[in-house]
Amino acid sequence: MLLTFTTIASASDEALSFPFNADSGKYWQYVSDRVMGGVSDGQVTLEQDGEMYYARLTGNVSTANNGGFIQLRAGVSFAKSEKDGKNLQGVRLNVRGNGETYYIHIRTNESWSPSDYYATTFKANSDWQMIDLPFDTFKRRWSKDSALDPKKIRSFGIVAYGRDHVSDVSISKIEFY
Q: If we measure between CA atoms, which residue out of 38, 26, 17, 24 comes closest to residue 160?
C-alpha cells in the first residue's frame, strides 16, 4: 500500500504532508538487517500524545554478522510532485529522539538494488523539533554524481544505521516542501 500525500496550506507555503494518525500503521513497515542475516533487533509502534500520533522506531542496531540497520519504511506516491510551478525542494520532519544521528533513505524509480538509495542524516534530540532536509543534501550511495529527482521518489525510510547503538526516534509528521 502506498502513502498518498495531501496538500496542506501552512502560513508560509504549501507542503505535501503526511501527519501520522490512527490509520498510519497500514502504510508503514518495519525492516531490519535480519533480511540479510544481520542480528539487529527492533520494533515500530504507533503512539499517541494528546491529539498527536507518532511512529516510534526503537531497538538495538548491531553491525555483527554484516548487519547494521533497523528502519521504518513506506512506499510513496505523489498526487502531484510540483507546487506553484516549482519542484519540491526537500523534506521536513517533526522528530524527537535519544540524541543519536538517524538517516533518511529515499529510493527512486532508478533504484534497482536494495542498497541503492539517496541518504542524508539528522539528529533527533529529546524535544520535538521540526527539521528541514533539502534534497540537495541527499547523496546517492552508488552514484555520487546523481541528483535526487523528487518526481521519481517511490519509497521513504527513517533508518537507524551503520554503527552499534540503541535507537529511539519518533516522527509525528513528514512534509515535502
A: 38
